[in-house]
Amino acid sequence: MVFAGGRELSHVFFEDADSQQSLIREMVVFAHKARKHGIVSLDAETDSIPDPFLKRALMLAVDGTEPDQLRRMMELEMDNKTEEEERVPQVFEAAGGFSPTIGIIGAVLGLIQVMQHMDKIEEVGRGIAVAFVATIYGVGLANLFLLPAAGKLKIRLRQTRVLREMMVEGVISILEGMNPRMLEMKLMGFLGQNEQPRTEPAK
Question: For labeling, which of 10, 34, 77, 164 is most exposed (least CB within 10 Å)?
C-alpha cells in the first residue's frame, strides 16, 4: 500500500480538469452510434477505451445485460474499488501523524548526545540547535506535505467516484435508448456549477 501511495502522488500534483466533460462528449458519441447502428455496434469501441471500469460496463451492455443487473454489478465493483483506493490517503494520514513524533524523538536523542559533552560548553548551543532541527523537519513534513497530500487524494477519490457514477448512468441510458441530447443534459447534472460549460448570452 505504501508503493501504491507513491504512485498516487501524481494525482496530487497533476489534475485532468476536462475529464468529466470529455466523458460526456464520449458518451454522446456512443449514444448516437447506438441509436443509429444498435448497441452491438459499440463492441468495436471497447478496444479503444483506456478506462477499465467504463470498458467493462460497455462490454456488459453490448452482451445484452439487463439495465438493473448492469447497475448492480457496476455499483458493487465501484464500491470495492472505492474501498481499496481509500486506503491510499490513509497511508499519508498515518505518516503525517507519525512524522512529528519521529521529529521529537530525533530532538531528544540529539539533546542526549549534547548532555554527554557538557564539558565543551561552546558546542552545547550548536548541538541544541541541531537537535531541534529534527522537530522542525517532522512537523514541517507532516503539515506542509503529508497531511495536505492526504486531503488532496481524498478530493481526487471523490471526483473519481463521481466520474464512475457518470459512466454507469451513461451506459445504462444508452442501453435504454435515451436520446443523445437528453443523455448529455442528464450527465451535465453530475457537474458542479463551476464545471458546467458557460453559454454566451443571446444578443
Answer: 10
CB 61 within 8 A of CB 70: yes
Q: What is the DSSP letter of 202?
A: P
CA atoms within 13 A on the CB side of 147: 12
pLDDT of residue 34: 94
Joined grid coordinates for residue 11: 494525482
Residue 96 in grid coordinates: 503525517
User: Each residue of 153-177: pLDDT tens digit?
Assistant: 998 889 899 999 999 999 999 999 9
Buried b (16+ CB within 10 A) or exposed e, 106-138: bbeebbeebeeeeeeeeeeeebeeebbebbebb
**Cβ contacts of residue 67 below 8 Å, gap of 6+?**
172, 175, 176
Q: Whose CA is closest to 184, among 174, 194, 199?
A: 174
User: What whole-number distance in Å separates Cα of residue 106 and Cα of residue 145?
Assistant: 19
Contacts of 129 (CB under 8 A, 6+ apart): none
- Phi and psi (nearest 5°) for 153? -65, -35
Predicted TM-score of the model (pTM):
0.76
